[in-house]
């Protein structure tokens, strides 16, 4: 057996398929692009959907990749089993309507057994197949697999409901008897059974049927291959590791954790301590990559997953005696492990560490609060002579404070009590159902749309250099999803021309609009342009006069609109680089819109953007505009572009040729959009808004040129109107006048508050004299007219300092709203009487709610007429205590 590193295994797999004519697709971001059905990229094929459903035709129908993936459906088992991982890499080879079973099977066997490649003993390999898949059986035998190493299993059929489906073949590696605890005759002791001996390393799906809505299956017009090989599992075989965790993908993280835990040792046994080491190693990898790809901790979606992983790893750290933040120190370790294929992790390690460190510190405080809640729940159970913690309480500890069920169960058992595991699982399932419903059910790939997939007519975009094309041939007309030879006036159609100056929407830049002419007559209006699967520009038009295939037309782009879009696109590049310069290199584009009258730019950033930083960004962009910098475009290959220093959008896939847009020495990016020739064309740049649009995602909206002038002009008019209303002759005196008026208002408010307090005190002097005695509790209640909560709190302070009674409840009303305050002496609090309980009882009568501390609480409501009833409700409540 060869002893290969994880990097060597990954490289060998990709190079094997490259030699067999496959294009190596780079690992995409963990955050799905244009796929709302997925929370994370969870497999290699997840990034290939656009090819398999026909929305995009790849330049090469043979593809291979090593795709980082996250799966969160089984987090609870991470660390307890040999193979469960949150983040993993899926090696795969894919055929989009090219080769099928014969090649897929023969190449798989060659890779696994050839001395040039993996060099595994074929006697250690077992293949499972769908019983009716005679072709797969035949090709495995032909490749050299013994018949008794081919196992027929009825479940070997990949089917997720409607859409593509087909049989699959799984490949297992026999690790020997020492890896199983089962008896030889155990029914699960076979390849595909629940055992540790036979390790599944590869699954090959033969997608050959369309599962129709009526439940029947029909052959697909194109048969596809989709495979998945878990890198971590394969590496464990090469490195003779008992589990995935004893490989070079995890051991450096575990060894660093040993240092941080005062040199506690990981010894490969499934003990409580070693489970903690595994959880930390797995979760450190997952959160490092997830944050590196732009996700941030939050309470929803992907952010919730990151927060949950950090919390679980932090609790595991506590199990090892690590009480301080430590996960952030593992980020560089992860970066060094993965540096050969994912250099961006090390490049962003400072930023990733900062995010994790902040979340860790916050959770360490939360963890202490969770322990307080746990102790409170235990005290309640014992006080009520109950022996079982409810599933809801256990889930609250898990969901709110990050306590894994196992930790709660262990602590409960230490108190000689139990926990309702069934109830906890019910709550967990409810949460999963909510998450699944929120993501939607569109999980399956669509069927390839042959209409456009097969369309190979050439179409050239020339809009980088000209906005009018004369005498270009109309090659394709589509009406109601059918090819036609002509289209009448009044119809809507999709058109493809031999040459076009119309830009198709891409990279955030909206499509061009304009007209189609024949001679001097306008025959159609272009409202939108999109890319067809084979990259032709597909024009959506409203036909004004009959049009015919094969006829030549003149295409005219709306030049003014196009020019405005170009300005905003160039401004977007200047803004992107300015944000990196001011906020840090960690900022990444998270989305953009380049429209005629404004630009919108979303970017990842942990924390607020201050007004000072925003002003610096805006100034920096304008400095580049005023410098009149030439904007140059170079066409090259992706590698050369990166060597030039071009910034790439990590989630994008680039072809053999790319456009690199360079703005002096300030900005250089990969970009397929259109741009001005010189920054002076922008005139000026103005940010009109900055806000948060999601966890760790900020949004800037801005304008340029005449739109910036119009914006500033409107702002100036508002300022002049304000000056007029404030009766100042010059605009520059507005601020001083506003300061003067604010000081006057503040003085008047202080005087009003003083008068209100005096009035309230006079009313209270009478109220304080009326003391009731209910069941030994001295109570003062009263309604103060036309007062506010501030005065009620002051009166409560006076009451407490003078020790006038055991309980005080006051109410007031103003502006159609009611306020209540309740105060309880310390002695009565000790006896069990709480202000919060009293205020809740009273608040019901004013249609409101509130709360507070045991000795002081307040409430507000919308029913002032209920204040008298509120006072009576308080007396009734105390009489029943």
From TrEMBL:
It is found in: Cytoplasm. Its cofactor is Zn(2+). Residues 731-758 form a coiled coil. The keyword tRNA-binding applies. GO terms for molecular function: alanine-tRNA ligase activity; aminoacyl-tRNA deacylase activity; ATP binding; catalytic activity, acting on a protein; transferase activity; tRNA binding; zinc ion binding. Its EC number is 6.1.1.7. Residues 4-714 form the Alanyl-transfer RNA synthetases family profile domain. Belongs to the class-II aminoacyl-tRNA synthetase family. Catalyzes the attachment of alanine to tRNA(Ala) in a two-step reaction: alanine is first activated by ATP to form Ala-AMP and then transferred to the acceptor end of tRNA(Ala). Also edits incorrectly charged Ser-tRNA(Ala) and Gly-tRNA(Ala) via its editing domain. Consists of three domains; the N-terminal catalytic domain, the editing domain and the C-terminal C-Ala domain. The editing domain removes incorrectly charged amino acids, while the C-Ala domain, along with tRNA(Ala), serves as a bridge to cooperatively bring together the editing and aminoacylation centers thus stimulating deacylation of misacylated tRNAs. This is Alanine--tRNA ligase. The gene is alaS.
